[in-house]
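Consider the following input, taken from an annotated entry for Glutamate racemase (Leucothrix mucor).
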Amino acid sequence: MKNNTNYINTSPIGVFDSGMGGLSVLREIRKLLPYEDLIYIADSLHAPYGDRSTQHVQSRSQKIANFLLDKNIKALVVACNTATAEAVDLLREQLSIPVIGLEPAIKPGAKVSKTGVIGVLATQRTIDSERLTSLAIRHAPHTKVIAQACPGLVEKVEENHLDRYDTRLLIKKYTTPLLEQNADTIILGCTHYPFLSQTIRIIVGKEIRLIETGRPVARQLQRILQQH
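Applying the prediction step yields:
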């Protein structure tokens, strides 16, 4: 019989996203937990999840989770805002291991905003989700939260078109309404978008704060692993 005090679970951690975007989360997990084994699934054939139905996102999430369970993972990170919004509750009901999801960083965004206006760049599916509305009500009741759908940006990241002219045009199109309403903080509400952060920074200016979700997720994963 194992002594629970000395037992160390060396099983890997499973991480998945609709494509390459979740690597921005994987990067933060690797920084914080360098000795953990990680298995990453990029479901690029079905990207972006933000354009898919709830049923499709749930089905893909279940299939990937089951595949990773066969690899004996000890925790699952849903490194996708859309999959978190549409499938994380279902996965938590079905799986016996910890399931960590992503949520747009509205709470920290509201804390640092000086104008009381924050923007959220996300997929249409994330913006339409009840989870985003609930986050805004709970964590930013006195802050104006402007949600901006960004069709096409996920594809630009998947194609590695991070700083092309047409990519810049899309970013300018999506960020201009936020700046016009005096937003001083922009939340990158999709794991693909941190790969565009340098280009976004050039367009919105250095005085605008950009907030990603990868590091908070890595910290939450660390806390959960310590409890298990």
